[in-house]
């Protein structure tokens, strides 16, 4: 590892998989063919039992599909036709599960050192711990950490080897909302810094709107939606105008102009409406506008995040 934290490398992740799964209502196929751009953060959503975790396990080499072609750039990780199967340890991946899977008998620093392995240089673990504010706890066992601290440790441990692909299976679901919000910020920062192509399984619409640049919805093993986050969660096209979903970023001035992130881009907008004065940075906000004010290309729909606040755009 170099002294500075540099971006991970890798190419497009191609995942074509067909695997027979045994669901509670009978067998069905996980059947997807995806091309995931290097450095993107893709949310995998869908109902329980749709195959989300299995898809991650297949990419990691922890589950064996009948048919698969998985490549990172030009490197084959799995090709069932030519009988290539790279073992998990040789795939450039980091994995964070909901239960963190930290080593309780090692210190916080020991957990990171273990992940760095022989490649780690003097001070590498401390630099990583510093990134997420855990330096002061380096000598503690992980059992002494709070849920959020454990989660941060799990994240930097997964990133320690600078994997090309980071897989996060509902990593924040056990945390309370305030801690979740903070960890989302950390995750966004680590993603920008390390640049790992990230697959995030999540059920939280607000979280996905804050973090992801693409949403893939699986249903019964098939891709039911593949597109932009705002389109995945929300924007309807009612008779009298258009709606879309964004994240309130703050900076409201006396005229009601403020910053809102829509599909990954921060924009300056003038908002009005009952909920506007109580908006906090990070809140999900549902925006209504005249057709004249917003390009229709930004709009699509099929649902609304349950915690979205409402506001309307003024001209
Ligand atoms: N190796 C396997 N062989 C056959 N069936 C499997 C295998 N692994 C998982 N399954 C089945 O595939 C289905 C999908 O499981 P999976 O854990 O991928 O769903 P999920 O979308 O992650 O659900 P949740 O949101 O509840 O975690 C389940 O019914 C599971 O029992």
UniProtKB/TrEMBL annotation:
<protein>
    <submittedName>
        <fullName>ABC transporter related</fullName>
    </submittedName>
</protein>
<dbReference type="InterPro" id="IPR003593">
    <property type="entry name" value="AAA+_ATPase"/>
</dbReference>
<dbReference type="GO" id="GO:0016887">
    <property type="term" value="F:ATP hydrolysis activity"/>
</dbReference>
<dbReference type="InterPro" id="IPR050334">
    <property type="entry name" value="Molybdenum_import_ModC"/>
</dbReference>
<keyword id="KW-0547">Nucleotide-binding</keyword>
<dbReference type="InterPro" id="IPR027417">
    <property type="entry name" value="P-loop_NTPase"/>
</dbReference>
<dbReference type="Pfam" id="PF00005">
    <property type="entry name" value="ABC_tran"/>
</dbReference>
<feature type="domain" description="ABC transporter">
    <location>
        <begin position="13"/>
        <end position="245"/>
    </location>
</feature>
<dbReference type="InterPro" id="IPR017871">
    <property type="entry name" value="ABC_transporter-like_CS"/>
</dbReference>
<keyword id="KW-0067">ATP-binding</keyword>
<comment type="similarity">
    <text>Belongs to the ABC transporter superfamily.</text>
</comment>
<dbReference type="GO" id="GO:0005524">
    <property type="term" value="F:ATP binding"/>
</dbReference>
<comment type="function">
    <text>Involved in beta-(1--&gt;2)glucan export. Transmembrane domains (TMD) form a pore in the inner membrane and the ATP-binding domain (NBD) is responsible for energy generation.</text>
</comment>
<dbReference type="InterPro" id="IPR003439">
    <property type="entry name" value="ABC_transporter-like_ATP-bd"/>
</dbReference>
């Amino acid at each position: 590892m170099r002294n500075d934290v540099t971006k991970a490398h890798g190419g497009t992740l191609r995942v074509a998989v067909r695997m027979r799964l045994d669901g509670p209502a009978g067998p069905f196929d996980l059947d997807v063919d995806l091309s995931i751009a290097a450095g993107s953060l893709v949310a995998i959503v869908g109902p329980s039992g749709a195959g989300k975790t299995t898809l991650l396990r297949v990419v990691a080499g922890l589950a064996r599909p009948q048919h698969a072609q998985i490549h990172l750039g030009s490197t084959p990780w799995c090709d069932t036709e030519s009988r290539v199967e790279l073992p998990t340890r040789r795939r450039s991946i980091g994995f964070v599960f909901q239960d963190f899977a930290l080593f309780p008998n090692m210190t916080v620093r020991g957990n990171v050192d273990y992940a760095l392995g022989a490649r780690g240089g003097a001070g590498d673990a401390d630099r990583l711990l510093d990134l997420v504010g855990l330096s002061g706890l380096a000598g503690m066992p992980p059992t002494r950490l709070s849920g959020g601290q454990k989660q941060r440790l799990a994240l930097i441990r997964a990133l320690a080897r600078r994997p090309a692909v980071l897989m996060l299976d509902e990593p924040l679901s056990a945390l309370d909302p305030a801690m979740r919000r903070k960890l989302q910020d950390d995750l966004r920062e680590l993603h920008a810094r390390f640049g790992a192509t990230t697959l995030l399984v999540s059920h939280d619409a607000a979280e996905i709107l804050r973090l992801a640049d693409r949403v893939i919805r699986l249903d019964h093993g098939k891709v039911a939606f593949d597109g932009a986050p705002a389109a995945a969660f929300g924007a309807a096209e009612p008779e009298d105008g258009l709606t879309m979903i964004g994240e309130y970023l703050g900076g409201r001035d006396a005229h009601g102009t403020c910053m809102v992130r829509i599909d990954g881009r921060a924009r300056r907008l003038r908002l009005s409406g009952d909920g506007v004065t109580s908006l906090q940075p990070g809140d999900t906000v549902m925006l209504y506008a005249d057709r004249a004010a917003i390009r229709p290309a930004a709009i699509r729909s099929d649902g609304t995040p349950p915690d979205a606040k409402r506001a309307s755009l003024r001209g």
